[in-house]
From TrEMBL:
This is UDP-3-O-acylglucosamine N-acyltransferase. Belongs to the transferase hexapeptide repeat family. LpxD subfamily. NCBIfam families: lipid_A_lpxD, PRK00892.1. It catalyses: a UDP-3-O-[(3R)-3-hydroxyacyl]-alpha-D-glucosamine + a (3R)-hydroxyacyl-[ACP] = a UDP-2-N,3-O-bis[(3R)-3-hydroxyacyl]-alpha-D-glucosamine + holo-[ACP] + H(+). GO terms for biological process: lipid A biosynthetic process. The gene is lpxD. It comes from Umboniibacter marinipuniceus. Residues 23-87 form the UDP-3-O-[3-hydroxymyristoyl] glucosamine N-acyltransferase non-repeat region domain. Homotrimer.
Amino acid sequence: MEYSLIELAAIVGGFVQGDERYPVKGLATLQSAGPSHLSFLANSKYAAQLDDTRAGAVILAHSAAKSFSGNALVVDDAYVAFAQLTHVFEKKYTTNLGVHSSAVIAQSAKIAASAVVGPNVVVGENVVVGERTHLGANVVIGDDTFLGDECEIKPNVVIYHGVSLGHRVRVHSGAVIGSDGFGFAPTPQGWFRICQLGGVTIGNDVDIGANTTIDRGALDDTEIADGVIIDNLVQIAHNVKIGRYTAIAGTAGVAGSTVIGERCTLAGGVGIVGHIEIADNVHITGMTMVTKSITEAGSFSSGTPMMPTSEWRKNAVRFSQLKDLARIVKKLDSNRRD
């Protein structure tokens, strides 16, 4: 496929600096681009690469375009424009409409005529699958589950019973939605399982990464609001509630009954204990362990930065001495005042 710069400018709401009819066949980085590519500059630390790029044109913010002599697609936000154009150049894999002959569909299930049901898919009783929703090979959908319009469920996803997905939800391979929460009561004879009677409710425009697990609620539903994006290998425990447009990076884990606000970001490896609340617009840096509620917006971190192991061992000993050191400092300060 080939587009002129003026055609692409119309899609992203920008304007062309240079040859409006310059043909573009794809997107590439500043380093790897050739004359037929459109590249982009969204991070100032790569600005030096503009001098050497072979790209036929570059997506630039207004401030960066002033000093660039080549063809440019000038926009308010270069990264957002790049994101929009990835949809233009994404390779579409055609799939036959309808239900594959090897799929097993319960008689009570309602599958939209425009939906795609791939090989070996299993769809349970009273399931609803919306318009233009695509179920990849080997997907399993449990009883009484609702999938809205234009959802994309990748191969080998398992969605248990009593789950509701809104419209335009993408779930990547290996994800499990609606598995039992980790609920057990201790007894003298061992752990007694608590049946998880709730479900999972997921809003519109949610993206769920590969091998991520979202547990069903114990009584009420686990809830994921509109526009949430969740990376690969994330654990969301039972009865967690996640607010709109929050982003959670890979290997993060959220324990049960935690409430996370809107527009939050959890970086890779973040751990959050159960039964706490995180306010809106909270940003938690990588590997942070959150052990209490966060009541106001801002950036929060824990742990220590990387250092040589021998140095870390010495500092680990010092950490254990902080209480005694604090007592000594307090005593010295008291003596000074006296």
